[in-house]
Design goal:
By secondary structure, this protein is of the alpha+beta class. The protein is 26% helix and 30% strand. The chain folds into 2 domains: 284 residues, PmbA/TldD fold, CATH 3.30.2290; 337 residues, no CATH class. The strands form 5 sheets. It has a 17-stranded mixed beta sheet that branches. The longest helix has 33 residues.
Length: 667
């Protein structure tokens, strides 16, 4: 009876509440639309370079729940609750609230303002006033920089491409159909996961961290293309990270978007009876503990030499998709690469060209929450969006079709430059597909960029249907390795060098995956030379997990997902050497973030960014400023800081109803 009652309670918890309402600040979109229209008309100039082509105003904020255990294991909960505004209206508190103005002339300017340094709700009438001031400041900056670009056009024959405009639309979106979660249940999940790890590892355990995060991304946006958006997008996840006294680090997570607690069922196999959320999280914790134990007894990657056959798990295949084929398909990176004087790899030449010799190799990026991948359907994809940060609907974009790169991810600033000079059939396809809906930013005080959402390699329905079948492709007279868990990877878009950082791997001998663990396997290579490396692609049956994490690009982190079937890479090159063992992956990620943040804040030159692990692959003289990194795990404090928006880079602050230019953000 107790079991039946528990399952009934769980089922009821998953039932949606009343139809979701619009965001509480939704009426601001009409005010924003008026602000940008009037600003464009009032400050318009005919002087070359100073013509205002585009104005947008964006307000971003987050709310949600954070639960993590302290050093003694006692769960600590942070919740954005409710409070009354001056008119007596109940308003949801926000972790942060801010504005960004965007103006396009012959150049682009972004100005941002922290609206709530000391508050958790804002006064709408003050927001509109501050929006006027911010847009004016952005217009002044855009006109000055536009003049400089015009001089380059006149004097240096500099190529300039016009902004792509779209037909405006109104979007009112609230995907948070489960706005209220049971705090007692969340606390039990965090405590339960921690207890499982402690019991499994005992005296071997050095540290265990568990964090539950459920947050809502709130957006109000309008621009002079008549786009108006008010939007709420929820994301949820629980992550478990472990370190043993021998120094092994293991990690596990279930993350997703567009849902409530049912996100935790993402990878549940078909069962006669559903497990409880606590049982699911305890199973995740057991897997993390087992990985830590296997890593403690694992051999080093040196036993594999510098080259061997490699089978990538679905999650590791997702990292490959993201780094090798995803970043090289982002429009802003392609345009920067095209204009770079130091680039050794020409990314634009890959469009319309063969990027894989395997005729079954196809890849997509999709902003959808539910995605069909052959016979496999994935729900609650972590990187999902509804409309992007310019109001364009998130689309499924086929990047590679049967080995040929047929499209790229773009925005209004890159599409015309990308299409220029391409073959007619490729241009026709790109023009028909239009803007791909991949404009994203970490938060309001960082400029929007072209970013991946959910990036997948498509299965080959004629390919191997299991790991055992895939392993038989490895010659019996050769040793190979199966990369089961992958911490992340990085790529240098200018040179094409990349690294996939495997964590727990298993030796392949005599065409069989053994139970002999190996750690620290780093697959390396060059994007341009990887065309003939993928020898086999698994069927949809092999897609049992995906990679979820955070992508770092130009010092902005955004949630992403990647996946694919099992992949067989023939003669994969392995990175090694002394520098590879300088620090753990988690420490490398922290240092990467630290140095790129210092560069963004003007505290160091971008040319001075240097990590020895990357220098070993790139060479000491190669700039690391443009390196993009994706990671499954941020340290708990960094992940919480990211969600709560604690790092602040706004140029202005709203104080006592006035806009104040800040002098404490940058040196």
């Amino acid at each position: 009876m107790e079991e039946e009652a528990r399952r009934e309670q769980s089922a009821n918890a998953e039932a949606p509440e009343a139809a979701p309402e619009r965001d509480e600040y939704c009426q601001l979109t009409a005010d924003f639309a008026q602000i940008v229209r009037r600003a464009k008309e009032s400050y318009q100039e005919k002087a070359p370079g100073r013509e205002i082509d585009f104005v947008g105003l964006y307000m971003g904020s987050r709310s949600g729940i954070v639960c993590k255990a302290d050093e003694r294991g006692i769960p600590q909960v942070t919740v954005s609750g409710e409070e009354e505004d001056n008119q007596g209206n109940r308003r949801t508190q926000r972790f942060f609230i801010g504005l960004q103005a965007e103006v396009g002339t012959k150049d682009t300017e972004f100005q941002s303002a922290n609206l709530a340094e000391r508050e958790t709700i804002v006064k709408e009438f003050e927001v509109t006033s501050q929006g006027h001031e911010l847009v004016k400041a952005a217009i002044e900056g855009a006109q000055r920089s536009g003049e400089r670009v015009q001089r380059r056009v006149d004097e240096e024959n500099y190529e300039w491409f016009p902004i792509v405009h779209v037909d405006g639309a109104e979007h009112s979106i609230n995907e948070d159909v489960y706005p209220r979660l049971e705090l007692d249940e969340i606390v039990a999940l965090v405590a339960g996961a921690r207890q499982v790890v402690r019991q499994a590892l005992g005296a071997k355990l050095d540290r265990v961290e568990v964090v539950f995060l459920k947050w809502r991304e709130h957006t109000e946006y309008a621009d002079t293309d008549l786009m108006k958006v008010d939007q709420i997008v929820p994301r949820l996840g629980i992550t478990i990270s472990v370190r043993t006294k021998d120094g092994s680090e293991a990690f596990g997570a279930i993350r997703g978007a567009m849902g409530g607690m049912e996100v935790l069922r993402r990878f549940e196999p078909a069962r006669a009876q559903q497990r409880s959320y606590l049982e699911i999280v305890q199973e995740l914790a057991k897997g993390v503990a087992k990985e830590a134990i296997d890593l403690d007894r694992a051999q080093g990657a040196a036993i594999l030499g510098t080259e061997c056959p490699v089978i990538l798990s679905p999650a590791a295949a997702g990292v490959l998709a993201h780094e090798v084929f995803g970043h090289t398909s982002e429009g802003d990176i392609i345009c920067q690469n095209r204009r770079s004087k130091t680039a050794q790899l020409t990314l634009k030449s890959r469009i319309g060209a063969q990027v894989s010799d395997n005729p079954a190799f196809s890849m997509i990026d999709s902003g959808a929450a539910t995605i069909k991948l052959g016979r496999k359907a994935l729900e609650h994809a972590f990187g999902a969006i509804v409309v992007d940060d310019h109001g364009c609907p998130g689309k499924e974009t086929r990047l590679v079709d049967r080995g040929i790169q047929v499209n790229v991810l773009n925005d209004r600033y890159t599409l015309n430059e990308i299409m220029d000079g391409l073959k007619d059939d490729i241009v026709e396809g790109m023009r028909a597909h239009g803007l791909t809906g991949n404009v994203r930013r970490e938060k309001y005080d960082m400029p929007p960029q072209v970013r991946m959402t959910n990036t997948y390699i498509m299965p080959d329905e004629k390919g191997p249907k299991s790991l055992a079948e895939m392993a038989t492709l490895v010659p019996k007279n050769r040793r190979g390795v199966y990369i089961k868990s992958c911490q992340g990877g990085w790529v240098n878009p200018d040179g094409g060098e990349f690294v996939l950082n495997g964590n727990l791997c298993y030796l392949i001998e005599n065409g069989t995956v053994t139970d002999k663990p190996i750690k620290g396997v780093k697959v390396t290579g060059n994007v341009a030379k990887f065309v003939d490396c993928i020898r086999a692609i698994g069927a949809a049956e092999t897609m049992d997990q995906t990679f979820t994490g955070y992508c770092g690009k130009n010092d902005q982190w955004v949630p992403v997902e990647g996946g694919g079937p099992l992949l067989y890479i023939e003669d994969a090159k392995l990175a090694g050497g002394a520098a590879a063992d300088v620090r753990r992956w988690s420490e490398l990620v922290v240092e990467y973030d630290k140095q790129h943040a210092q560069a963004s804040e003007g505290k160091r030159s971008p040319r001075s960014i240097y990590l020895p692990e990357m220098g070993e692959v790139l060479g000491k003289e190669t700039s690391q400023a443009k390196v993009c990194l994706v990671t499954a795990a941020l340290r708990v404090e960094e992940e919480v800081d990211l969600v709560m928006g604690r790092r602040d880079r706004a140029q202005f602050a709203a104080r006592d109803g006035k806009m104040v230019r800040r002098s404490d953000r940058f040196e």
